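ok trying again, last paste got cut off:
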Amino acid sequence: MAHHSVAPALRIDDISKTFASGRPALDQVSFVLEPAEMVALIGASGSGKSTLLRHIAGFLPADAGAIEVFGRVTQRNGHIAGNIRELRADIGFVFQQFNLVNRLTVLTNVLTGLLFRVPLWRSLLARFNRAEREAALTELAAVGIAEQAYQRAGTLSGGQQQRAALARTLVQRARIILADEPIASLDPESSRNVMDILSRINRERGLTVLVSLHQIDFALRYCPRTIALHQGRVVYDGPSKNLDPATLRRIYGAAAEELLAPAIALPTRETTAFAGLAAAQAAA
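nice, full thing came through this time. structure:
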């Protein structure tokens, strides 16, 4: 009997990108994510994290290489797929600055997650039926902000806005979530809440999550696997638990301190041990 292999959630083959300034942003990046993985993408400022996520979503064309999402090509050798609007229905993108329309209600912002799945004329008119609105309210409840559904998005706190952005990807029925430093501008409690929700979505719904993070202890706490970028190249891809301070310093040199800075989440057993190890190695 024939066995049909399941396509990876994400396959990146030798993606390279050089900006007009001549600076290489991505340099032959390759890796594969399996369905339902939760993976951290780390790197110091300017390492290429955001650029890579934008290429995966089809926002930017690469100079070379190919990207597939669930077995379907989103771009190849500098050409973004002609059906990218259809393909993006499977890709939820969470921005650092939330990307909500402040003057619209939270509910309407969340409903825009349907724009890839409804006919173009409906998306242009922002016409949504009762079932769609009920689905949006359900997802707002899932991220803990149902009571804010009819408030203008601009009245929400940063943490609440990021939760609304997560609800938008759930309404979209995305199969993979790309989160671009989703906690970089949040306070400690909001950061924990957002990462807890991402982790729960991954665990309970089987969604693939690739989340870029600025500090390693969040990767340790939430992501079994970490991919590290440095100057546009993959310099580590493996278990998060193996990324100790000495390894980070060997990879990044002085730039490692940016990643080793204490994160704003409350300490856990893992991150407390990690901080102690970092201090001991620094003193040695």
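cool. The chain has eleven helices and eleven strands. The two ends are 59 Å apart (CA to CA).
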